[in-house]
Predict the structure.
Amino acid sequence: MTPPIDPARRQLLRTLVLGMSLAPVGAPAVPAEPPLISENDPAAKMVHYIEDARRASGATDGATCASCSLYSGGGGADRGSCTLFPGKLVRAAGWCSSWSSL
Ligand code: SF4
């Protein structure tokens, strides 16, 4: 014959089982965003990269990283990637002497 289970113990076991079933298994890892390239980065200096095209003496009207064919950025994002600078981001409002519309 099985001894009766203590009601308090039964409730504790229920709470533990319910808590374990509702616990998050693990949030998916969010990849870290690459850093912004600095205007002082040697690679940036080679192409006269500047974070704000309005300060660039060689930029034509409307020529910014956001309108460059080498730029990949989300809609409305203030930064994105450039094929010239793998592993770094550029400002959407930036510009460099390699700007291209092709
Ligand atoms: Fe910006 Fe284009 Fe120059 Fe890259 S190549 S830094 S996207 S202007």
